[in-house]
Design brief:
It is built from six helices and eleven strands. It has 216 residues and is α/β, with parallel strands linked by helices. It has a domain at 2-91 and 156-214: P-loop containing nucleotide triphosphate hydrolases (Rossmann fold, 3-Layer(aba) Sandwich). Helix 6 links the parallel strand 8 and strand 9. Helix 3 packs parallel to helix 5 (139-151) and helix 5 (139-151) runs parallel beside helix 6. The radius of gyration is 17 Å and the shape is globular. Bound molecules: adenosine-5'-diphosphate.
Length: 216
Amino acid sequence: MLETHDLTYRYPGAALSFRFPDLQVAAGDRALLLGPSGAGKSTWLHLLAGVLTPAGGRTRLDGTDYSALRGAALDRFRGRNIGLVFQRAYFLEALTVTENLALARRTAGLPPDTRLLRTTLEGLGIDRYADQRPGRLSVGEQQRVTIARALVNRPKLILADEPTSALDNRNASRVSALLRSRAAELGAVLVVVTHDERLRGDFPRVVELSEPAPAN
Ligand code: ADP
């Protein structure tokens, strides 16, 4: 269960402060956070990911208040519990697809698991690229590798920032379906932030963000 309570954020020196709606999403369930560009969606996602520290409020995953964690403890928590998918894929280009996934496990302090890497790639229909460099794949294929990397730590929370915005209709619906099916299979919470209206029908719960309020 992901729960947020009274989450606020203000960029240093900025005139606007963000106050985000409270979220409660059960394990295996999903939510879509929709809003126009500039509404603060990425900021929200970075708070949920523990990449930004909230000015106020709490983020809890299965009862752990991770907004209270800092430094190495937060890094460890994130590495083991949270899988991140961004709009554009970021990989180490010197490494193959499989090596990039293996690195994600190692960075999180988890033991190697060759079989899990293989079955994850198979589940996403990209096992034939296991030994290739990610840069040689199409944008849609790279996005599936990004999802694979987010899954190899078997996270409790999967967060995706505009995962489909750069994709055509066919790839967008495929990526959306894969995110939903894999999250449900893992029993993970799935939260997607986007302005991509194509995703609306894929999520039983849609939270809409409006413009941020002036700080005072
Ligand atoms: P969205 O993802 O909905 O487009 P963002 O969370 O990226 O929105 O940004 C919302 C607003 O927050 C931006 O319009 C900008 O004014 C402000 N903002 C984003 N990042 C920073 C930053 N690093 N420093 C200062 N202001 C920022």
